[in-house]
Specification:
The complex is a heterotrimer of chains A (about 450), B (about 280) and C (about 180). Chain B has about 280 residues and is mainly α. In chain B, about 35% of the residues lie in helices and about 5% in strands. Among the domains of chain B are: about 150 residues, Cytochrome c-like domain (Cytochrome Bc1 Complex, Chain D, domain 2), CATH 1.10.760.10; about 40 residues, no CATH class. In chain B, helix 2 packs across helix 7. Chain C is an alpha+beta fold and about 180 residues long. The relative contact order of chain C is 0.14. Chain C has 2 domains: about 35 residues; about 130 residues, Rieske Iron-sulfur Protein, CATH 2.102.10.10. Classes of the chains: A mainly alpha (about 450), B mainly alpha (about 280), C alpha+beta (about 180).
Chain lengths: ~450, ~280, ~180
């Protein structure tokens, strides 16, 4: 894909610069003249949307840091940190808007990244030659989780505090070194002021690391070029259009639609995705009655709680993220796009529902009844009509999906794949004409 | 076909979610909050200034004897959208804010002698807290410190409706419920009364016991605008005041949002036209 | 689908449509994008301006009876030092004497204090050169000398020598009673 450059400097200055630092050429080849498959659908716009999210988070975050005080020291009304957030909300010019954008921006960022990831799985975008691209994406996702978690701690409310307590205690599950690691993370004997200070420092650092990995991610994308809904490689120029204006305008349109959703939250439901308890200042002596992480962590939280053993639970939770890294070596099917893999597609759709339901489990107490009117009965250690068992079944499918994909790669017989992006010529055994037409419409 | 499957899957997910959701927060129970209507509800809602003034009076006359509002300053009362806002008047110079502030003696340091003194508050001072610190608040209130009210309307599920329900919701405990001395039964105060209940295990009353005695009585406050001070009126007004105090920029937020959404919709329309135009030549 | 193969890159220049209408929509889209970014940038910039609680501390009151003859008290106002000086008759006389001397920023002594209150000189204690705080009792004119770059002010706070362009500024203040002033 990285063929010869079509950039031709027009003025004396750009010629002069091009022979010294060909930065305009780089931008031109990457975002203007970059040959992009012409059949990308709207699921492909989430890459651009994610870049927008990162930009918004960094821009708002930098200005919030100008007013935020990373100190857990007590002050009338809460702590210096808690009060500084309220100072932003009340006294700083437009502070309420900037903070709501930043807080809801985290949720929007995760919404977009989950869609982006599911799209990658569905269309096989992680398969050769794009494994490194996929792994870089997984690293970005990990960094995002760390950043979001530490950001949630900063307002130093009750949820911040006990979120920090629970997450840092996860590391205590590790044998031998666990206790030392948690003490090291805390900088004390409990989550306290030193913890808040370092979390602020890291919360400011990590987004720039994300930005760095994003550059690598785009680089790794531009070597093999985009995958596409058909999952076939680009064969000729007829298969592609230049990135600009075709995809700048399409991505731009999708971004604005996404911003409509974003703005609806910021201006009309700014606290809908948060938790009221985080407007109560942190109090290490009292845990709120119902402690839940932010929605984007709920599926993993459900997996953690589903396992009765602490260490195994923690390992399962980290495993649920870790398994993504090896996905290119789990799903070995030569057919990239699940459009042409009906069986895999079925399991994939169940997988999406599974993840959503896991999130639902994470938002409930483990012992809550699923169906309020059903008595249920105890099986092994918990009631079958409880979220504990639902989480276990869903958790098993979460990992089972990858096992199924592994075996499907060998046993499944995919539908015929079009030869190229612009010409849907059949290959392999002839199929009824209707079936191909049907396959074309999908997506 | 795929679209159909996706849609079905989405519906199944949503339906399951909706069916399963009402189990949340089962560790503590609480009666469903009372339905209250608020002038500031909805995308175009605004605070009713007269109500905010009455609400401030309830806070001042009743709540503030025990509850602090540390995050507010007297000048905030005259901020745009606040109870004593007047167009064109700088909140720091507002005669209302000044008059309210000067009745409070706040601690300060005499810069000549270095001694601790008290002086009349100015608009830039924070609301004076009823107790010097949390320990004093605890000691004076039977061991439970009255929570700060600055953010109460955001810190509880249901916000102002929760405040209204609790304030008007005190009832005699049902027979079979043991209420400890210094505690009061309130069905709207989230709690778990299982261990205080002698009746049938599946009929534990909702709610919990609260350390605050029923604070409101009819005519406890004399409203300047002649509104009849019923318990319900007092609770309604103070809940509205606390909703304003928790998010003073709420009106501005909704108004800005309206402009932003209009802009985004127009922008989206124009971009879509541009997109169709650009792609019209491409067979894809 | 198969019968229309695009031979080369599609044309990005003007197509067959009415070129004016075609361009208009793209220009409108680009304008909306630029305008939106500019409007979004404003809150992020304005957020650095003084916040409401800072503005609320914009004025202070001061009791002049705390200053004795020939003494200078420095109070903090808006984060800056304000010199409150109780001038001796000799200092006043020196200042009045120089009213017509050549100066960079000519001003009479009378314009430097409130009418009838010649003994009280209220000045922002920030050198008009680059913002350091001048020291009293130094320099050739019996007034202030800035330690940073040697600007010399006289007993009325007027610039007499050195790089500073202006006299020491007077804050907005007013007498609220005979001995009390409100600054700001």
């Amino acid at each position: 894909m990285s063929g010869h450059s079509t950039y031709k400097p027009k003025t004396g200055f750009t010629r002069w610069l091009d022979s010294r630092l060909p930065i305009i050429r780089l931008g031109w080849d990457s975002f203007v003249d970059f040959p992009t498959p012409k059949n990308l659908n709207y699921w492909w716009t989430f890459g651009g949307i994610l870049a927008l999210c990162l930009g918004i988070q960094i821009a708002t975050g930098v200005v919030l840091a100008m007013h935020y005080v990373p100190s857990g020291l007590a002050a009338p009304g809460g702590s210096l940190a808690f009060n500084s957030v309220e100072h932003i909300m009340r006294d700083v010019n437009h502070g309420w808007m900037i903070r709501y954008i930043h807080a809801n921006g985290a949720s929007m960022f995760f919404l977009a990244v989950y869609i982006h990831m599911f799209r990658g799985i569905y269309y096989g975008s992680f398969k050769p030659p794009r494994e490194v691209l996929w792994i870089l994406g997984c690293i970005i996702y990990l960094l995002m989780m760390a950043t979001a978690f530490m950001g949630y701690v900063l307002p130093w409310g009750q949820m911040s505090y006990f979120g920090a307590v629970v997450i840092t205690n996860l590391f205590g599950a590790l044998p031998i070194v666990g206790k030392s690691i948690t003490t090291w993370l805390w900088g004390g004997f409990a989550v306290d002021n030193p913890t808040l200070n370092r979390f602020f420092s890291l919360h400011y650092l990590l987004p720039f690391m994300i930005a760095g990995v994003v550059v690598l991610h785009i680089w790794a994308l531009h070597v093999p070029g985009n995958n596409n809904p058909r999952g076939v490689e680009v064969k000729s120029k007829a298969d592609t259009v230049p990135f600009h204006p075709y995809y700048t305008v399409k991505d731009g349109f999708a971004m604005v639609v996404f911003l409509i959703l974003f703005a609806s939250f910021v201006f009309y439901m700014p606290d809908a995705l948060g938790h009221p308890d985080n407007y109560v200042p942190a109090n290490p002596l009292v845990t709120p009655a119902h402690i839940v992480p932010e929605w984007y962590f709920l599926p993993f939280y459900a997996i953690l709680r589903a396992v009765p053993d602490k260490l195994t639970g923690v390992l399962c939770m980290f495993g649920a993220v870790g398994v993504l890294f090896v996905l290119p070596w789990i799903d070995r099917s030569k057919t990239r796009s699940m459009r042409y893999r009906p069986t895999a597609r079925l399991f994939f759709l169940i997988f999406i529902v599974d993840c959503l339901l896991l999130g639902l489990c994470g938002s409930h107490e483990p012992d809550d009844k699923i169906f309020a009117n059903l008595a249920g009965f105890t099986f092994i250690d918990s009631n079958l009509n409880s979220y504990t068992w639902l989480s276990r079944i869903l958790g098993l499918y979460y990992f089972g999906f990858y096992v199924i994909l592994f075996f499907l790669s060998w046993t499944e017989k995919p539908l015929p794949v079009p030869e190229s992006i612009s010409e849907p010529v059949l290959k392999g055994p002839a199929l009824p004409k209707g079936a191909t037409a049907e396959a074309e419409k999908k997506g | 076909m795929l679209r159909k499957t996706t849609l079905i899957a989405a519906f199944v997910g949503l339906a399951l979610g909706a069916a399963l959701a009402p189990g949340a927060l089962a560790a503590t129970t609480q009666a469903p909050l009372k339905e209250v209507s608020w002038s500031f509800e909805g995308p175009f809602g605004k605070f009713d200034q007269a109500q905010l003034q009455r609400g401030y009076k309830v806070y001042h006359d009743v709540c503030s004897t025990c509850h602090s509002m540390n995050l507010l300053s007297y000048r905030n009362l005259a901020d745009k959208g606040g109870p004593f806002y007047k167009e064109g008047v700088n909140p720091n110079e507002s005669p209302y804010a000044k008059a309210i502030a000067k009745d409070f003696m706040v601690p300060d340091i005499d810069t000549d002698t270095g001694e601790a003194i008290t002086r009349p508050a100015t608009p830039s001072d924070h609301f004076k807290a009823p107790f010097a610190n949390e320990y004093a608040a605890k000691a004076a209130n039977g061991g439970s410190a009255p929570p700060d009210l600055s953010l109460m309307a955001k810190a509880r599920e249901g916000g102002p409706s929760y405040i209204y329900s609790v304030l008007t919701g005190f009832t005699a405990p049902p027979a079979g419920l043991t209420v400890a001395p210094g505690k009061y039964y309130n069905p709207y105060f989230a709690g778990d009364l299982t261990s205080f209940w002698n009746g049938a295990a599946n009929q534990v009353p909702p709610g919990g016991t609260i350390s605050m005695p029923p604070p409101l009585k009819p005519n406890l406050v004399a409203f300047d605008d002649g509104t009849k001070a019923t318990v319900s009126e007092e609770a309604w007004d103070v809940a509205a005041f606390l909703a304003w105090a928790a998010e003073p920029h709420q009106e501005e937020r909704k108004q800005t949002g309206f402009a932003v959404l209009i802009y985004l919709f127009i922008f989206a329309g124009v971009l879509y036209a541009s997109y169709r135009q650009i792609w019209s030549k491409i067979d894809h | 689908m198969a019968n229309t193969v695009v031979e080369s890159y599609p044309p990005t220049e003007h197509g067959a449509d009415d070129p004016n209408r075609r361009d208009f929509i793209h220009i409108a889209a680009a304008t909306a994008a630029v305008g939106g970014v500019a409007v979004f940038a404003w809150p992020l910039i304005d957020e650095m301006n003084p916040s409401a609680d800072v503005l609320a501390l914009a004025s202070i009151e001061f009791d002049l009876s705390k200053v004795s003859l020939g003494q200078q008290v420095v109070v903090k106002w808006q984060g800056k030092p304000v010199f409150v000086r109780y001038r001796t008759p000799k200092e006043i006389a020196e200042a009045v004497k120089d009213d017509n001397a050549p100066m960079k920023d000519p001003a009479t002594d009378a314009s430097r204090h409130k009418p009838g209150k010649a003994q009280y000189l209220i000045l922002v204690g920030v050198c008009t050169h680059l913002g350091c705080v001048p020291n009293f009792g130094l320099g050739d004119y019996g007034g202030w000398l800035c330690p940073c770059h040697g600007s010399v002010y006289d007993t009325a706070g007027r610039i007499r020598k050195g790089p500073a362009p202006l006299n020491l500024l007077m804050p907005n203040y007013a007498f609220t009673s005979d001995t009390k002033i409100k600054i700001g």
